Amino acid sequence: MAAMISWPVLVAAFIVAASLSSQAMEASAAGGGGGGNPTAGFVKVDLTDGDFQVQRPYNVPESRRFRYRDGVRTFWVYDNDKPFNTATHTNPRTEVRLRGHDYSSGVWQFEGYGYVPSGTSGVSVMQIHNEEGAEHATILMLHVYHGVLRFYDGPAIEGAIYDRWFRLNVIHDATASTVAVYVDGDRKFSTDVIPSKSYYFKFGVYMQHRDWSRCMESQWTNVTVYTKA
Ligand SMILES: *[C@@H]1O[C@H](CO)[C@@H](O)[C@H](O)[C@H]1NC(C)=O
Questions:
Q1: Element (H, E) at 95
Q2: Rounded Cα gap, residues 147 and 223, in angstroms
Q3: pTM of this prediction?
Q4: Which of 5, 29, 71, 185 is the most buried (most CB within 10 A)?
């Protein structure tokens, strides 16, 4: 399937990730466990509502899969929904594609407060997507399976993700080709990634290939993009 990253690439990424994240854990233990602020030194990028482009199953009105109320975006999708357009055969999704801020160098950061209700499984809730036509569709996906947030369907990033607001920060150094994931201000995971030409952020619900639930939902608020030179 076009959206899937190849296994050799993924396995290589996991091996690097495993060694990096144990170093990160040691560093954080040595430092007394303090998280620090992942956005320190970054500059906020101005986002308008128009930058939040909603993609949803092509045959239903947006209001049947997406709600934006009191600053909270709620996304849901069903396992038998259609793709987001008639040309693609990708799995069902209701997602925001952040537009107008695609980047190809520098350091970029996604911040959002997310909520995943218990029962939702087998779904990507956030992605760093490569340019259309790239060899690999993504360099990072955060999946939820049975209450655990994972890097793709591999290493666990955070257990007990259900039924609470969590702060997510994802830092992508596009020049060095590294990503780091912070949950509630603590660095939980990092890895090298395969570089591509340009990138953009997505979040919402995108059904995956195992352990999916009939309905998949996530909520997001206070989504912010940051960058630094
Ligand atoms: C989002 O931002 C508003 C305004 O700063 C704040 O009151 C609210 O608590 C934030 N939401 C979450 C889930 O952190």
A1: strand 93-98
A2: 22
A3: 0.85
A4: 5
